[in-house]
Amino acid sequence: ADPVPPPRLGRGNMGGEQSLVLPLGKGPHHVGCVDVMVGHTRQGLFLRLFYPCLPQEGAERPLWIPRYEYCGGLADFTGRSQRWCAPLLSVAFGSCRVPASWKGPFKPCGSGYPLVIFSHGLGAFRTVYSSVCMELASRGFVVAVLEHRDHSACATYFCTAGTGQEQWIHYQRVPQGQKEFYFRNKQVHQRADECVRALRLFQDISSGKSVPNVLHQDFDLSVLKDSVDLAKVAVMGHSFGGVTAVLALVKEPSFRCAVALDAWMFPLENALYPEVPKPVLFINTEKFQTPESIAKMKRLSSRNSQTKIITVLGSVHQSQTDFAFLSGKLAGHIFNVRGTLDPYKGLDITSRAALAFLQRHLDLREEFDQWDNLLEGIGDSVVPEAPFCLSKL
Fold this sequence. Notes:
Keywords: Hydrolase, Lipid degradation, Lipid metabolism. Its EC number is 3.1.1.47. By secondary structure, this protein is an alpha/beta fold. The chain has a domain at 31-62 and 97-287: Alpha/Beta hydrolase fold, catalytic domain (Rossmann fold, 3-Layer(aba) Sandwich). It is 30% helix and 20% strand. The chain contains ten helices and 14 strands. It has helices at 68-77, 82-93, 130-138, 180-206, 240-251, 291-303, 323-326, 329-334, 343-362, 372-375, and strands at 9-11, 17-19, 30-38, 45-53, 101-102, 113-119, 142-146, 155-159, 166-170, 228-238, 255-261, 280-285, 308-312, 382-384. The strands form three sheets. A ten-stranded mixed beta sheet has the order 5-3-4-7-6-10-11-12-13-14, sandwiched between helices. Strands 1-2 form a two-stranded antiparallel sheet. A two-stranded antiparallel sheet has the order 8-9. Helix 5 (240-251) links the parallel strand 10 and strand 11 (255-261). Helix 1 (68-77) packs across helix 2. The longest helix is centred in the middle third of the chain and has 27 residues, at 180-206. It is globular and about 50 Å long.
């Protein structure tokens, strides 16, 4: 039986049908999640962990927006007044819960689950990609979604030693007079370094080192010790997180491949393109990419025949986030968070293509290769390479 009932549909405040909860993962595993904070300075780590868990009767579901401060951060990022926009966002999304078992009992795996480190996009935070991360976890992956501390998250925080006082890190725009490339390039390097540190965290756990969780000391991270296969590790991300994933391949040899969702290639310096050693799957939306960005992706594919570029027709940049499910049809089109493609179909295409790619390059035993056609852009909603020559659905 499913761990929670399927999502009901209701009438959105701005017209159109609206999902009241995010979709469940379709895989055979129940999904648990917990927040992990390590260290008491901004040089530590903050992430949400999605993982296969044991069924739990009456399991708590965490809020999708974990704190009101994130509403204020989203208002700041979109350039709107916190005074009216933050309460509006709280009303619109504040009751939404993630259909995963909060701190659910971890399901051990003697052969070890493959690990995915996930990097969020500009102005996002650790829960914005819950739907795709739950899908991966339901298929037998451990997924660690970072909340970056480079001022690219809409808001984040750390807890100081001793008192545990929260220190908030807010979104920062490009300073006046500074070129955007240099500002964003510094951020993308910090983000990739955080991805590497997240991998080090799992290596520490695997070696038996005690790793206290600052936020939830009742969730013992040592349960992961013999159940994560550190020989099968990938990095994944959306937008700014997509290019972060590409850079992480340069910084850390243990990452065997990357999945880049609608990657924003602008912040990566040209000198690094020849240094990307591993295959990348670029899953692009129809409305975001430019010829210049596609050309940068093709530079990577020309150096590695296993690097693939596909475009999902009828999708927009936010189609690969949870916002596609949490906005009514009218609101979704007004705020450009939904394309013409049904968000459930979009998630299915994205996750299946990613799973087939991960099976190929992590040498997984599962039969995800049944979706290999998606990697070649074969399907009624997916095509290879550049979106700018496509007709609209």
